[in-house]
C-alpha cells in the first residue's frame, strides 16, 4: 500500500529505522525520484520547524507569577487535594486581582511558605479599583519590591505604565 | 517579593539539591530561570494564554511536591518540561471529550496518507526575515488540530521519539506516524497560504 511507503520514508528521515532497514531503504530510494523528492521535502520541513520555534515569554510579571505558585503551595503543600478545573483558576485570579489588590500586596510581603521568620514587611493598601493591571519589579540586591497599579486597562501598552501609583519597600 | 536571595550564579543541580532540602528561595530561583520555557511549552500545546499560565504554574507546584522523586536521570528542565507536557495533554483530553471530532481529524481519517500529493515546504533560500518566518510557522501551527500540533511540538521541538510520543498521547506508534505525516503536510500547505495572504 502506498501510504506505508510514505510513512517508511518519513521514518527514514526521522531516524526511526534500524540500521539494516535504513541501509536497505536508502538503496531503494536511490533509483526512485518520487521517494527522493518526498524524503527531501519531509527533511526540509523537519529542519525548518526544529530551527524556528517562536520564542515566547511569560506575559505577566515574574513576581506575580511566583506569588501565585507560592500561594498554591501554601494552600496545598503536599498536593493532598486535587485542583479545580484547570484553566479556571487563572481566569478567576486575573479578573479578581483588581478588587483584591490589598490581598495581592499582602501576599507579596509574606515570608516563604516554610520560612520561620518573615523577611519583608509591606503596608496593606486597599483600593476600590474595578479594573487595573498590576506590574511588579523586584531588585534582589536592594531588597525591594515595586508594584505598579495601572488603571488604564484596555489601552494599548507597549511600555511600562507611566504612572507609578504605589511603591512599597 | 519574598526572599531577596540571588541564586543566579548557582547551577540547576545546586538549586535542586537545596530545594529538595526545603529551601524555597532555591526553588524560586529555578522558577525564575525556567519559567519562560515552561510557559512557552504549555502555550505551544494549548494556544491559550490563561490556560498556559495556569498549567505552567501547576507544573511548578507539582514539581515542588514531587521534588524528592527527581532522580537526575535527565536535567531538571527536561523533568519539569515533561510535567507541564503531561498536564497539558490531560487538559486537552478533557477538552476533547467535551467537543466533537475536529475537521482535521476527520480529514485525516477519511483521506489517508495515500491520497496525499507531494507537498512543497517553504524554500529555505527564500530570504525571509527570521522573525517573519517564525511568525508564519506559529500562525500555521495555530491552525492545526490539537492532535496534529501536539505531535509536531513533541517531535520537532521536544525531539521525542515516536514511541515516547505514542506513550504520552496514549495512542499507537502508527497513529503517531500518520499524524506526524499529515501535520507536516498541512503545515506546508498552511504556510503557503499564509504567504499568499501576506503577498496579496
Give an overview of the whole structure.
The complex is a heterodimer of chains A (169) and B (200). Chain A is 44% helix and 8% strand. By secondary structure, chain A is mainly α. Chain A folds into two domains: 2-51; 62-150, no CATH class. In chain A, strands 1-2 form a two-stranded antiparallel ribbon. Chain A is elongated and about 70 Å long. Mean pLDDT of chain A is 69; it is low at 81-93, 97-102, 111-124 and 153-169. Chain B is an all-alpha fold and 200 residues long. Chain B folds into two domains: 12-97, RNA polymerase sigma factor, region 2, helix turn helix motif (Rna Polymerase Sigma Factor, Chain: A); 103-199, Arc Repressor Mutant, subunit A (Orthogonal Bundle), CATH 1.10.10.10. Helix content of chain B is 70%, strand content 0%. The relative contact order of chain B is 0.10. The chains are: A mainly alpha (169), B mainly alpha (200).
CATH fourth-tier homologous superfamily of the largest domain in chain B: Winged helix-like DNA-binding domain superfamily/Winged helix DNA-binding domain
* Low-pLDDT windows of residues of chain B: none
Could you give the order of strands across the largest sheet of chain A? 1-2
Helix-strand sequence of chain A: HHHHHHEE
Major protein interface: A-B, 67 and 68 residues
**Overall spatial form of chain A:** elongated
Task: Please give the number of β-strands of chain A.
Answer: 2
Number of domains of chain A: 2
Give a quick account of the main beta sheet of chain A: strands, pairing sense, barrel closure: 2 strands, antiparallel
Helix content of chain B: over 70%
Q: Please report which band the strand proportion of chain A falls in: under 5%, 5-15%, 15-25%, 25-35%, 35-45% or over 45%.
A: 5-15%
Residues in helix, % of chain A: 40-55%
Which structural class should the secondary elements of chain B be placed in? mainly alpha
Gap between N and C termini of chain A: 71 Å
Predict the CATH topology of the largest domain in chain B.
Arc Repressor Mutant, subunit A
